[in-house]
Amino acid sequence: CGTNKSCDLVYTGGRETGNYDHRYRPWYTITKELQESNWSPPYLYVDSTAYSRPTFALSFITPIYTYNDTTNRKIFAGVVAVDYELFHVSQFLRDLYNNT
Questions:
Q1: Degrees (nearest 5) of the Cα angle 25, 57, 36?
Q2: Smallest Cα–Cα separation from 63: which of 82, 29, 36?
């Protein structure tokens, strides 16, 4: 939490909020339980831009760890997630395989 002890605040889309705790979201809890990288099921996604339309997406989530030199054990520190809009995945694959 650092010296300012602001662990209860989360920055989402450039805005600070105390109403959202990612540690209780399914993508976080499932990854913490699995202790391995995984893909989310497809879901309806809305980004933080004012004129964004909902679109389908999926996320790749992977756990991150710190290492305790004293105990020689890794310690769960959190997860990293990346959202992929299915439209962009489809467009990438179409461009990739269009010339084959």
A1: 50
A2: 36
Q: What is the dihedral of CA 29, 35, 40, 45, to 10 degrees?
A: 50
Strand partners, 55: 45
* Residue 91 phi, psi dihedral angles, 5° rounding: -65, -40
Q: What is the pTM of this model?
A: 0.71
CB atoms under 10 Å from CB of 83, counted, come to: 14
Residue 75, CA atoms < 13 Å, CB-side half-sphere: 8
Reading the block at residue 52, the tokens are 């964004």
Locate the DSSP E strands across the chain.
10-12, 15-17, 38-39, 43-45, 55-68, 73-85
Q: Residue 84 and residue 53: Cα distance in Å, rounded? A: 15
Q: List pLDDT tens digits, range 61-100.
A: 999 999 999 999 999 999 999 999 999 899 999 999 986 6
